[in-house]
Write a structure and sequence with these properties.
Elements lengths: L28 H6 L5 E6 L2 E6 L2 E2 L2 E2 L8 E7 L5 E7 L13 E3 H4 L5 H19 L11 E3 L4 E3 L6 E2 L4 E9 L6 E7 L10 E4 L6 H13 L3 E12 L4 E10 L12 E8 H8 L13 H11 L3
Parallel strand pairs: 1-6, 11-15
Antiparallel strand pairs: 1-4, 2-3, 2-7, 5-6, 8-9, 9-10, 11-12, 11-13, 12-16, 14-15
């Protein structure tokens, strides 16, 4: 085993798309881009996108996109062509045929190249807001989309609203005494033998460090020390920024499930984690699109 590359970004954390944020205030940017034959559009229905191949998104010409979607400017590709998103609510049928069908970010995000992964997470994060938040939270009036999909203005009270991102911590816990042990938990909503890192949202007025200690104590009964930041990842389920940490337990024998959100906690050996990552045995670990997978895989690859 070799030590992980500490410069390697978590999945979906890259900046491979030039967001060209300075262009968003350009009048009629969406209309102008849609009229340009070089523009490419990522169409989303719910959290699914069309695939040109099992690990490659299908980008659609603007003229071929069905009517009725919400549009947003994602940025520009290396050749300077505009990249747009056209987002639709989830449907029980495909909007149009795709060579490799349609798939969600959870399923294919970890296999996409850097550009497709960055575009997918940007489009989904922005698109969910465009679909789910059409009304002003202050007065209830229907808002008007501006800044090429990146803001909403209320014509009634004049307030301007922007996409919201909620910080959340996610933590892999190592043993106080044995470098070959990793503590994971099983959520009440999951099936048997599915385990992952511990996670939770940062509360108002709370630091990341305090959130880590609080969440771990609440869910597992463990007091932690030696916190180490390991990277971040946008996770639009619904609008999170996951901030990954490694931490060390103060006392291994304090581990216990809260019985509410977490129904089981367990210390896993490095060999058990390796088998789970390889898809062998009964242990089910997070998919490769998630920062939880990266935290676990990097711990496993690290020489004790």
């Amino acid at each position: 085993m070799t030590a992980p590359d500490s410069t390697r970004l978590p999945p979906l954390a890259g900046a491979a798309v030039d967001r060209a944020a300075d262009e968003r205030a350009t009048p009629d940017l969406i209309a102008t881009s849609r009229a340009d034959a070089s523009t490419r559009v990522l169409v989303l229905a719910g959290d699914s996108a069309p695939l040109a191949a099992p690990a490659r998104l299908q980008w659609t010409p603007a003229a071929a996109v069905p009517e009725g979607g919400e549009w947003a400017f994602l940025g520009r590709d290396d050749a300077g062509a505009a990249l747009l998103a056209a987002v639709f609510e989830a449907a029980d049928h495909e909007l149009f045929p795709a060579p490799s069908g349609w798939a969600g970010l959870r399923a294919v995000g970890g296999a996409l190249d850097d550009v497709d992964a960055a575009a997918f997470v940007e489009a989904l994060s922005l698109g969910r807001w465009l679909i789910d938040a059409p009304f002003c939270p202050a007065c209830g009036a229907r808002t008007v989309v501006g800044d090429a999909g990146w803001s909403r203005r209320c014509p009634s009270c004049g307030r301007q609203h922007f996409p919201r991102t909620d910080p959340a911590v996610i933590v892999a816990i190592t043993s106080a005494t044995d470098p070959d042990l990793l503590l994971l938990g099983s959520n009440a909503l999951w099936g048997a033998n599915r385990f992952s890192c511990f996670a939770g949202f940062v509360e108002a007025g709370e630091s990341l460090e305090a959130a880590v200690r609080r969440e771990i104590a609440e869910e597992s009964g463990i007091e932690v020390s030696q916190l180490a930041y390991h990277g971040s990842q946008a996770w639009p389920y619904p609008r999170s920024l996951m901030l990954g940490f490694l931490a060390t337990a103060v006392r291994d024998d304090a581990a216990r499930a809260d019985g509410d959100e977490i129904v089981a906690v367990r210390w896993f050996t490095r060999a058990e984690i390796g088998a789970g990552l390889a898809g062998e045995g009964d242990l089910t670990l997070p998919g490769p699109a998630s920062i939880a997978h990266r935290l676990i895989a990097d711990w496993h690859a690290r020489t004790p």
